Amino acid sequence: MASRRFTAPAVALVSLLALAGCAGASGDEGGNAPTGEPTPGGEAVFAVDSNFFGFDPNVTPAAQDARVLRQMFDSLLYLDESGELQPWLATEWSASDDGLSYDFTLRDDVTFWDGTPWNAEALCFNLNRIVDPAAGSIYAIGLVGPYESCEVTDEFSATVTLSAPFTAFLNNLTSPFLGMNSPTAAAAADPADYLINPVGSGPFVFESYTPQDRVVLTRNEDYAWAPGNAEHDGPAYLEKLTFQIIADATVRIGSVRSGQVQGIGNVPETEVAAIEGDPSMQFIAQQQSGAPYQLHLNATGVFGDPLVREAARAALDIDSAVQSLYLGTYERAWGPLSPTTIGYDDSLEGAFEFDPELAADLLDEAGWDLGADGVRTKDGQTLTIDYLENTPNREKRQDLATLFEANLEDVGFDVNVEFLATAEAQTTLQSGAYDIAGLSLVAVDPNVLYQMYDPRFIPTPGQTGFNMSHTDDPAVTELAAQSQSATGDERLSVVQQLQADVVENVRSIAVYVPTYTLALNGLEGLRFDPEGYPIFFDAYLAG
Description:
- Helices cover 26% and strands 23% of the residues.
- It has 16 helices and 26 strands.
């Protein structure tokens, strides 16, 4: 039989080690169990299902991109399997008692692919660039929180200053979205050009990108600064690593079965049993931490009424949708954090249920009267909502929208579902011209709650943000602020209060836990980071 792996990332916060949620896994932790001695050389092709946004870690927000970023960029720190922070590009670090400054001592033997040395100036350049509006950071800017400045104190020493305490800062430094760019290359290029032609210091060098086709990486022969959890020293085993875009699931599956590619991502649920029955293949399901896929309800329209929000949630048959579309591969979600995320509150599981009769009663109570045509009205206004989802159909989210459209219409909503490409979807989100928008975020820290429910992250024209529910509640804002500075049990309490508020007030509706599924054929040694992103540094071709 082919081997099957279901794994959850090992995650923890230094001040919250007791909160680390880590599911057990058979074989070696965080990767596929090697079956023989590593053999250097050769090319591996890994097929993905959709296009990329770009490869500048300071800018891109996409999980798909992070799977490539993890191979090209090194981080200041990494989290080991027990959730402890460990050195990588930084050898030592310390925080002030007030949590406003961090001192870093850096490695002195690292160079970027273009020959630029890694030093304190490079660190400060990267952090300053993230908060520079000209760079256009979408996701990394939230990871650095209240970053204020970076001072070079020696060639390999720097002091980072924050304007307010930010407990998540060190954990966030392990993210591929805070990977370090070459200051020489990034400063010389137009941001749009650098997005598709980056320069890092990692084990694989960016060679080329053909939109809608592939990204090609080659081995960094000079690489000698792998993190301590790597299985070997020196350069990567693979000489070449290609991420090929094969949108058609049937073609993707056929390509890995035939050996044309050595691995694929996002395995169709209907193919899992067949892959498990193939002795030449391995199936892996890697849960990702952060925020699960949720429907965010825009409170500036009809969802400004909490009764209408609660009615919409009661109308959705989430269990049936998740089971019918994902066949047990994805876990049902309940709140705004995924189960493997630090501080996850499992007491929220089962907090609500599918109840169309309750939904109808709530809409009646809210004053929305059911008409003969099955659509509700109030004071001459139709209960019309615009439901936004991206295209292409990532993780069958468009199928979910179709199922949920029917659920909502069954209780009297008039639903307009729009499937929009990324650029148009971003414009619509920034304009606020939607009522429901789907979103999941990958993160190692519960700080993701701050990014989704603090009013500073409400999307506005020209500015992307993840507060798609337009939550602007002083009590929530205060909790979000506390989550940035509290530590230990105090922070745990705040994180739990935030989760409870989201569920109680239906600011968003959790649907499923994003789980990256892979099928491998002839590829060994693949590992995963705490956020669930694959690491190809130790990977090699079998046989």
